C-alpha cells in the first residue's frame, strides 16, 4: 500500500495533485491548459461548496445543454455568448488599429452554406417587414477599395427570429446572403429592417439565465462576415442606433464603432456602411 | 445611443459587468453561483488568452462530450471524475467521524435498476474469473448491527470492463447485485475478483486526457452503495490492497480506509468487510 502522502487528496492539494500527474514539458500547451482549467474549477468548487446533489444538478445541466445542441442549434455557443466568454475572447484578440472595423461575437445563428447572390439582390425571401436598402464599401486602412471581397450577412426578421429558429415559418436562407464587392469595393443589397429580440430561452441555457434574473435582450442588428485574401476576416454586427436596449446587450457585443443610424427613406429605410479591413500578418490565421 | 461607460466591456470589467446585471438578492443562490462561475471562467480566459480558433476547439470539445453522453454512457460524469471535481465535491461534503466508512466518487458505471438477490447469490452471470467470496457486516458507530440495509454492488470483470461497457459481450446485470443485510447486519455474496482498468479513452474526455499525457488507470475495486433508513447513504469503493496503481488512481478516489487485503482461499479469494454508517441529521439529505 502506498504511503499516506500519495493519497493525501484534500481541498488544499487537489489541483496540485492533478497538475503533478501531467507531463511538465513547456512545448505542449494542452497540459498547461488543463492544469489552469482544473485550478479554477477546484477554486470555484471550494468557494461554492456544492453538495453532491448540487453537483448532480450541474452534471444534469451540462447533459441537457449537450442534448439541446445539434446541426441547427448550438447551445454551447449560446452559453459561451451569454456568459460573456465569447465577447472576452474577441476582446483579447482584438488588436486592430482604432480606425479599422472591430470584430464582435459571431453568435449561434451563423450558417456557412449561404448561397451567393448578385449585387442588388433581395435577401428577404418572404417580403415581410419594412424594406431596408444597404449600401456598403469595403476598404483598407488607406481608404483604397478592396475588390471581390466576400460579404456574408445574416439577420433576424421583423419579429426577431432567424430562419434556422423557424424552419417551418421562414423559407430556408431567408435573410441570409453572400455577395462580392465590385472593383470599387462597393456592395449593395435589399433586405428588411431587423427587430431586436430576446435570446432563445426555450433551451437549458436560456432557461437557467432567465431563472437567475439575467436580462436576455439583444438590440436590433445585422451580422456581417467579410473575407478578402491577405486581410484579417471581419466578423461583426451593425446595430440600429435607435434601439433602446443598446446598453444591455445580453452577449456584450455592442461597441460604439458598430452603431449606425438607419435613415428613413420613403416607406422604407436606408443604411450606409463602410468596413475597414486590416492586412493579415504573415503566418497569422485570418 | 448610450454613454461610453455603459459599453465599456474590457478584460478588466467583463466579469463585473456580468455580475451587475444579476439581481442582488441574498436569498437566491443561483445568481451568486453564476457570478462566481463567470468570475473564474473569465479569469481562466484572461490567463490562457485563447484565439477565436482555440475557443472554437473548446466549444467543439463540449459539443462532442454532449453527443457522447446517452443513457448508457455519462461522459460528463467521466469528465468531472477525471478532473478531480467529483472527488473534491465528495471531500467537501465528507464530515463523518473518523471511524465511519467514508464516501468516495460514485463513478459513471452505476445503474440504479439492479435486481435484488438472496444472500449468498452469485453476481457473476458468466462465471469468468477467479471466484471471490465477500462477507460483510453493516453496523453503526457503536458496533450495533443495521438489519435490512440495502447493499448495491457493481464492479468490472476480470478484464476490467463493466457490463454496460460491453453490452454485446457480457450478460445484462453481470457483476451487479442488490442485497439486504440479515438481522445481525450481515451479508455475503459470491463474485469474481475484479481487475484494475484503464479509464475509457474511446470518448472525447478520455482522448483529451490521454493526449495531454494524463495517466488513466484505476486500481482494482468493488463499488458499494449502502442505504438504511435514518442513516447517511454510503457510496464508496473497496480497493484490492495488492494493486500496484493505488497511488495514481485517475479519479482520486482511493482513501487508505478503503484499501483491503483480498485473502487467497484455495483456488479463489475471500474478502471480509465492515461498513460503519452514521445516523443522518434531521432534515439533512441522505
UniProtKB/TrEMBL annotation, chains A, B:
It comes from Rhizobium esperanzae. Residues 126-265 form the Intradiol ring-cleavage dioxygenases domain. Residues 31-100 form the Catechol dioxygenase N-terminal domain. Keywords: Dioxygenase, Iron, Metal-binding, Oxidoreductase. InterPro entries: Catechol_dOase_N, Intradiol_dOase_C, Intradiol_dOase_core, Intradiol_RC_Dioxygenase. GO terms for biological process: catechol-containing compound metabolic process. This is Protocatechuate 3,4-dioxygenase beta subunit. Its cofactor is Fe(3+). One of its GO terms (molecular function) is catechol 1,2-dioxygenase activity. It holds the Pfam family Dioxygenase_C. Belongs to the intradiol ring-cleavage dioxygenase family.
Amino acid at each position: 500500500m502506498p504511503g499516506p502522502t500519495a493519497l493525501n487528496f484534500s481541498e488544499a492539494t487537489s489541483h496540485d495533485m492533478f497538475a503533478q500527474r501531467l507531463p511538465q514539458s513547456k512545448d505542449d500547451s494542452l497540459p498547461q491548459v488543463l492544469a489552469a482549467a482544473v485550478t479554477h474549477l477546484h477554486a470555484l468548487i471550494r468557494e461554492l461548496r456544492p453538495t453532491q446533489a448540487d453537483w448532480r444538478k450541474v452534471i444534469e445541466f451540462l447533459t441537457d445543454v449537450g442534448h439541446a445542441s445539434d446541426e441547427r442549434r448550438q447551445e454551447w455557443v449560446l452559453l459561451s455568448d451569454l456568459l460573456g466568454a465569447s465577447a472576452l475572447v474577441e476582446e483579447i484578440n482584438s488588436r486592430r488599429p482604432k480606425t479599422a472595423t472591430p470584430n464582435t461575437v459571431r453568435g449561434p445563428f451563423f450558417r456557412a452554406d449561404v448561397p451567393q447572390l448578385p449585387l442588388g439582390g433581395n435577401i428577404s425571401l418572404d417580403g415581410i417587414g419594412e424594406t431596408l436598402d444597404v449600401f456598403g464599401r469595403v476598404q483598407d486602412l488607406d481608404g483604397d477599395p478592396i475588390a471581390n471581397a466576400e460579404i456574408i450577412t445574416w439577420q433576424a426578421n421583423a419579429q426577431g427570429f432567424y430562419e434556422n429558429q423557424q424552419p417551418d415559418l421562414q423559407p430556408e436562407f431567408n435573410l441570409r446572403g453572400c455577395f462580392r464587392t465590385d472593383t470599387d469595393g462597393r456592395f449593395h443589397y435589399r433586405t428588411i429592417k431587423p427587430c431586436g429580440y430576446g435570446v432563445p430561452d426555450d433551451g437549458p441555457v436560456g432557461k437557467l439565465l432567465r431563472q437567475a434574473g439575467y436580462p436576455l435582450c439583444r438590440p436590433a442588428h445585422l451580422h456581417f462576415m467579410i473575407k478578402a485574401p491577405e486581410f484579417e476576416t471581419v466578423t461583426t454586427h451593425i446595430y440600429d442606433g435607435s434601439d433602446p436596449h443598446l446598453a444591455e446587450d445580453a452577449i456584450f457585443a455592442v461597441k460604439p464603432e458598430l452603431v449606425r443610424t438607419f435613415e428613413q427613406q420613403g416607406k422604407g429605410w436606408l443604411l450606409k456602411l463602410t468596413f475597414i479591413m486590416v492586412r493579415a500578418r504573415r503566418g497569422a490565421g485570418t
